[in-house]
Amino acid sequence: MSALDYSNDPKRGPHPLIVRKDAPYNAEPDITDLVKNYITPEEYFFCRNHGPLPDITESKHLIEIQGIGIENPTHISLKDIKENYEKSSVMMVMQCAGNRRDGLHKVKHTKGVIWGPGALGNAVYSGCRLRDVLATVGVTTKIKNLSKLHVAFESVEQCEEDKCYGSSIPLSKALDEFGDVLLAYEMNYSTLTRDHGFPIRVVVPGYIGGRSVKYLKSITIQDYESMSYYQRRDYKILPENVLDEDSANNYWCKVPSIGEYNVQSYVCNPADGMHEAAIANQKVQGYALSGGGRSIQRVDVSGDDGKTWTTAQLYQPAAEGDNCRVWGWCLWTATIPTKRNVRIVSRAVDSSGNVQQEYPVWNYRGVMNNSWRTVDPHTIEMSNI
Amino acid sequence: MSALDYSNDPKRGPHPLIVRKDAPYNAEPDITDLVKNYITPEEYFFCRNHGPLPDITESKHLIEIQGIGIENPTHISLKDIKENYEKSSVMMVMQCAGNRRDGLHKVKHTKGVIWGPGALGNAVYSGCRLRDVLATVGVTTKIKNLSKLHVAFESVEQCEEDKCYGSSIPLSKALDEFGDVLLAYEMNYSTLTRDHGFPIRVVVPGYIGGRSVKYLKSITIQDYESMSYYQRRDYKILPENVLDEDSANNYWCKVPSIGEYNVQSYVCNPADGMHEAAIANQKVQGYALSGGGRSIQRVDVSGDDGKTWTTAQLYQPAAEGDNCRVWGWCLWTATIPTKRNVRIVSRAVDSSGNVQQEYPVWNYRGVMNNSWRTVDPHTIEMSNI
């Protein structure tokens, strides 16, 4: 693979994101900033790239649409998308599958950008519905063998691991009347920036961010998942016994790719959840979310290593909206007593009764970490520190 | 409430179910029987009743349909349902929210029938789609304020706690093209028996059994959940601090009712997962499932108290079917070394990356227990026994 050229990446002045990797640019906010707003402003929104940022001229950009069930493959322009399709908005969490990878990396070496707990944000995306676009090329839920079909997306983004970024989702998710999958050209009511996929990206609510392909250049209906590296050899929860690249090679094809993410929460303020002194009435803030449109029904917070728990106050306007599923996150607060040098932890329960497990279940790619305990890097033992 | 008369309940000869309560009749199979078949035969299918079994004459039975969006309330007969609507089948798990309540009851007193791990089964139900019936009275996804509407069901069943059994689901679940909600008149290709709701019942795939109302007598579209005891004061995950009926009274209205169930698995063979001697190659069998159409991606099995885990072989034909969601369960087998007097445990991961938590999170109604550890009743401490 030829070396990638990052010279045309946007110049970045001083800004509040913590850079996890320079090239490609990967950065996340400080978590105390993250929970300041229910809708995450772009300045506090994590950036995840797999290569140099494309610099696309909107008026010249076309998206190719082809594959099973499409008699006449076509190209669609941004003008067409903006003028001829109903504009729709969805408020949703964008969360990287590697959010909180650092927690698993402390257990054992993982592969990937070592994200902290800030690789997510809650935004309003606007654009046209993917199902509306597919309907105009004749693809509807009446298509034969729907349960076996996928929609594959390719990106203009040149990448480190593959010729371009690519991914797919089940066609049924794309066509689901309550699935809210968009081809988005706005984020938080402004034109997408290059960091977030200008001029157009897919947004797949309730799924890991890796499926929301940026800089979209093609849409293909096919009877297999995307052949992309990012679908086939990445973003999978490998079993605990897979420790390295060699043994992973025997497992990629046996393990399903991740779609929906799991139930999650984190203490964001105080930032490290730690104190040198016990505090009787510590105000604690954090986030909680779950995949697939599931809302949060409860968050428990503990200042004494999980012995006792206090029920948090939830702020979750996404659950009161007009969407039939809940794609936005939940911010929560609690006031609890804390102990000296004991980390405050939170434990969320989603609307399906799923609970965050106590200890991390390690996996080589370090994805979907949602345990409420973390590992003390000094002792490399499970602990509440 | 007047005393209920159980004299017309079916006479029950010797049969393989373990009776948890006589009147109303509540019984579950031995778990080694339960995993003998992928499709659970009726003889091994748990029975959950809230009162005397109705004895309905099919030819005289009508279902009332009324409420928001229905200009002309109507009654529909079984003949109409069978002759004028397309017959559809769904293979799905029916699981009581109280399955494995015994595990929580050992932690602290819970309210309800003390079910073991056999209050579930995997069946093929056949009938007409609820959405087809609703379409004929003018209720479709075009209805105003869909996200705020519910379908309430009432049963002919007279109950201990309310005038009749009743429950509701979000209207969007009923209308969801991929939701597979049926008005079923067959189970495993035979006419429903009285135990399972003859002549007609609702089946709501991916939801707790309590929403699949038997002996259906009315369907109402309304802008609030069912007012029934079973929706409002039962089948909710109360916080851990709610210890009794009095404190529960302050919480019922604050806690959401359960819809989808959570990720679950259990070791069924050997039955108690215990041995008096260590065995090098113990064959272990069990079940795994998750709610909301999520499949099982992995089951880990441990014979050494969770120190090491072996990946089980999964048998999950439901995931290969024509449905876009997975409603059937997963049976699994593993061969592992076991230790003397150490209980074998299993831990499932569903397609959304949710994992069973290690320790039970107790709740007063003893619902949705999916921990992989249980409590040793002799020591009343958490343990792997």
Summarize the structure.
Chains A, B: Its cofactor is Mo-molybdopterin. The structure is a homodimer of 385-residue chains. Chain A has seven helices and 21 strands.
Task: Characterize the structure shown.
2 copies of one chain form a homodimer. With about 375 residues, the first copy, chain A, is mainly beta. Chain A has 2 domains: about 25-255, Oxidoreductase, molybdopterin-binding domain (Sulfite Oxidase, Chain A, domain 2); about 265-385, Immunoglobulin-like, CATH 2.60.40. Helix content of chain A is about 10%, strand content about 30%. In chain A, the strands form 6 sheets. Chain A has a 5-stranded mixed beta sheet with strand order 4-3-12-7-8. In chain A, strands 5, 6, 9, 10 and 11 form a 5-stranded antiparallel beta sheet that branches. A 4-stranded antiparallel beta sheet of chain A has the order 13-14-18-17. In chain A, a hairpin with a 6-residue loop joins strand 3 and strand 4 (about 75). The longest helix of chain A has 7 residues, at about 80-85. Residues about 380-385 of chain A have low confidence and may be disordered.
- Name the structural class of chain A: mainly beta
- Which regions of chain A have little confidence, pLDDT < 50, spanning 5+ residues? 380-385
Superfamily (CATH H level) name of the largest domain in chain A = Oxidoreductase, molybdopterin-binding domain
Order of helices and strands of chain A: EEHEEHEHEHEEHEEEEHHEEEEEEEEE
Q: Total number of β-strand segments of chain A?
A: 21
Report the sheet with the most strands of chain A, covering strand number, pairing sense and barrel closure: 5 strands, mixed
Strand content of chain A: 25-35%
Q: Report how far the terminal alpha carbons of chain A are from each other.
A: 42 Å
The second-level CATH architecture of the largest domain in chain A is Alpha-Beta Complex
Q: Helix share of residues of chain A?
A: under 10%
| CATH top level label of the largest domain in chain A | Alpha Beta
Largest interface: A-B, 49 and 48 residues
- The rounded Rg of chain A comes to 21 Å
The residue-averaged pLDDT of chain A reads 94
Q: How large is the count of helical segments of chain A?
A: 7
What is the 3D shape of chain A? globular
CATH topology heading of the largest domain in chain A = Sulfite Oxidase, Chain A, domain 2
Count of domains of chain A = 2
**Widest beta sheet: strand line-up of chain A:** 4-3-12-7-8
Oligomer: homodimer
Pfam families (chains A, B): Mo-co_dimer, Oxidored_molyb
Domain Moybdenum cofactor oxidoreductase dimerisation (chains A, B): 257-375
Protein name (chains A, B): Sulfite oxidase
Region (Disordered) (chains A, B): 1-20
